[in-house]
Amino acid sequence: IMLISDPTIEMAHAALNGLAVRRQQIATNLAHIATPGFQALRVEFESALQDATGHTKGPGPSFGPGAHLPTKDFGLPRMWGHTSEPIATLPTGDPDKADGNNVMPDAELIALTDTDLKQAIMADVIVRRVGILRSVIKG
Predict the structure, then answer these.
(1) How many CB atoms lie under 10 A from the CB of residue 21?
(2) Which of 4, 58, 70, 93 is the most buried if burial means most Cβ atoms within 10 Å?
(3) How far apart, in whole angstroms, are the C-alpha atoms of residue 94 and residue 105?
(4) Under DSSP, is residue 21 helix (H, G, I), strand (E, B) or coil?
(5) Is the CB of residue 87 less than 8 Å from the CB of residue 74?
(6) To the nearest whole percent, how much of the chain has pLDDT over 90?
(7) How large is the C-alpha radius of gyration of the chain?
(8) Tell me: the pLDDT tens digits for 113-132?
(9) HEC string of the chain?
(10) Is residue 16 pLDDT above 70, yes or no?
């Protein structure tokens, strides 16, 4: 069986991996909304993905010829058994409440909605790209 490597599918897969980790961190933040002293974190993987593709910040994804992504496991933390670089987890910088907790429910829900939309877009990119490849293969 011949496997087809497609940079667009690899980029979308890597983005979905990063978004899954982000979703898990948002859930953790929300689960600790009433935990005194808990400091919310944000997951950042976009700059590593841009570095891997050679794309700089700008409107929409654009990947030129010869752009290569590391592996399908890009962005998954080492603790999950993957060998790629871990995704950055950074403090949110939100102000602390009286109990030292800084989880901002509104900000977390906005981040969750943003993550949902990005996941839907990346899944659609993969579906459309597979459709194009299928059409090309069938002739």
Answers:
(1) 20
(2) 70
(3) 11
(4) helix
(5) no
(6) 46
(7) 18
(8) 999 999 999 999 999 999 99
(9) CCCCCCHHHHHHHHHHHHHHHHHHHHHHHHHCCCCCCCCCEEEECHHHHHHHHCCCCCCCCCCCCCCCCCCCCCECCHHHCCCCCECEEEECCCCCCCCCCCCCHHHHHHHHHHHHHHHHHHHHHHHHHHHHHHHHHHC
(10) yes
| Tokens matching residue 32 | 């600790």
What whole-number distance in Å separates Cα of residue 109 and Cα of residue 122? Answer: 20
* Amino acid (one-letter) located at 128: R
Two tokens, residue 69: 């992504």
How would DSSP label each residue in 22-39? Answer: HHHHHHHHHHTTT-TT--
The span from the CA of 64 to the CA of 48, in Å, is 17
Give CA 130 to chain center in angstroms.
20
